[in-house]
Write a structure and sequence with these properties.
Blueprint (H helix, E strand, L loop, with lengths): L3 H54 L9 H7 L26 E5 L10 H6 L1 E11 L2 E4 L12 H16 L2 E2 L2 E2 L14 E7 L3 H11 L1 H4 L6 E2 L4 E2 L3 E7 L3 H4 L8 E6 L3 E2 L4 H5 L6 E2 L29 E7 H5 L9 H16 L3 E5 L6 H14 L3 E4 L2 H5 L13
Parallel strand pairs: 1-2, 1-15, 2-6, 6-9, 9-10, 10-13, 13-14, 14-15
Antiparallel strand pairs: 2-3, 4-5, 7-8, 11-12
């Protein structure tokens, strides 16, 4: 028979065992609760990090298996399969493209000239043309010219074909007045043609080669009283002679790329010095871009001669306009110049355009683009179509040294 002390020891041992088991159960329960709460939070955290990284890199970090879906609809719309005849529309080429105010600089450098710019939503394209014989060849310089890269092949003929598709004739009727963008059929496409050789010889050849667009009513024109906007607006720059642009007083469908003249605000010191308290523009040869809008301009003495009846853009080199940007910032004086130039363009009914804007670093490029858009510039000259399509000027980026 156990003594009292032995019984007490047994009781204490059993109590210790029960407490140990209870402690273990409590610990397991705590671990389970922690896993149940922490695991979902960890999963959410991981997916949040992945989502942020995808936004930053603009790439998918995990493959999306769309094989089943693609296999199901791979043959949709093709002859003999479900949806036959429904796979495409006449206007499919630009059906989901939103036009944006960008000009595809040196567009002929693209892998697919014209169409790469349209796919990005650019409302303007540019072709440098060289006249040899009776043919216009497209290229940045003489070394880049080839026999098959002509103004007709790269621009006129593709535009006629595209616009014919956008304005089909069918049993439902005849569609008219549609531009190149399906979502905004009233948006005109600016075809900027840079005359690289003698403008007086080049002008009639350019005009003649536009006949395919002209005869179908696809060209914007001035009828002697007002401008009628159409699918394509032809703007001529470089060595284009202004005197030939305005030689016809009743009809024009080639418009001039005028100089971007600075206009002083009403009551400014400069305006008072010129003897007027109203708005005034500086003389043509002052604060205008070097070589911009000078050919055949001996017949005029003021930027006011360039208006919407004969011109479309008012353009200037950004670097020539504002000079050096100290630490990537525009001074108060430089901002006043930009505002005055844009103000002068708008008063004359023209669209302000700057070329030769900085392209690097990206933060500086975006800052300049954003300033120009905020101040009322009508179009951005761009080389980076991908950034333009994303409207990258709305993003704020910071350089590591700033």
């Amino acid at each position: 028979m156990l003594s009292r002390e032995e019984k007490l020891v047994n009781v204490l041992e059993r109590r210790q065992v029960r407490e140990t088991r209870a402690c273990r159960r409590s610990r397991v329960a705590s671990i389970c609760k922690g896993v149940m709460v922490g695991l979902p939070l960890l999963v959410l955290l991981v997916f949040g990090v992945v989502h942020v990284l995808e936004l930053i890199t603009e790439r998918s970090l995990f493959p999306r298996d769309l094989g089943t879906y693609q296999a199901l609809l791979r043959d949709w719309g093709t002859p003999g399969h479900v949806g036959e005849g429904f796979a495409s529309y006449a206007t499919d080429v630009t059906r989901d493209i939103l036009p944006i105010p960008c000009h595809s600089h040196n567009d002929y450098w693209r892998r697919i000239p014209l169409f790469d710019a349209l796919r990005s939503g650019c409302t303007g394209v540019e072709a440098d043309v060289w006249l040899f014989g009776e043919e216009l060849f497209v290229g940045h310089n003489l070394a880049a010219l080839t026999s098959n890269r002509t103004f007709k092949n790269l621009y006129v003929n593709p535009l006629v074909s595209l616009l014919d598709n956008m304005n089909p004739r069918s049993s439902f009727g005849e569609a008219t007045g549609h531009g190149v963008f399906d979502v905004d059929p009233q948006q005109t496409l600016v075809l900027l043609v840079d005359f690289k050789k003698d403008g007086h010889e080049t002008f009639p050849v350019v005009s003649q080669q536009l006949e395919a667009l002209r005869e179908k009513g696809y060209l914007t024109f001035w009828d002697g009283a007002k401008v009628h906007s159409r699918a394509v607006t032809l703007v001529a720059t470089g060595n284009t002679p202004f005197d030939m642009v305005v030689s016809n007083g009743t009809y024009r469908d080639i418009f001039y790329d005028a100089p971007l003249a600075w206009e002083m605000p009403k009551g400014s010191i400069e305006a008072l010095e010129l003897g007027t308290s109203d708005k005034a523009s500086l003389p043509l040869d002052s604060k205008t871009a070097s070589g911009q809008g000078n050919v055949g301009t001996g017949i005029i003495s003021s930027p006011n001669a360039f208006n919407s009846n004969n011109s479309y853009y008012a353009s200037m080199s950004f670097r020539h306009a504002v000079g050096l940007m100290w630490r990537g910032h525009l001074s108060h004086r430089q901002m006043e110049i930009i505002r005055g130039q844009i103000r002068g363009a708008k008063r004359r009914g023209l669209k302000a355009r700057y070329w030769d804007t900085p392209s690097w670093p990206i933060s500086l490029r975006n800052r300049v683009w954003r300033i120009l858009m905020d101040e009322g510039a009508d179009v951005l000259n761009v080389d980076d179509l991908r950034a333009a399509a994303k409207q990258d000027w709305t993003r704020i980026r910071h350089d590591w040294w700033r």
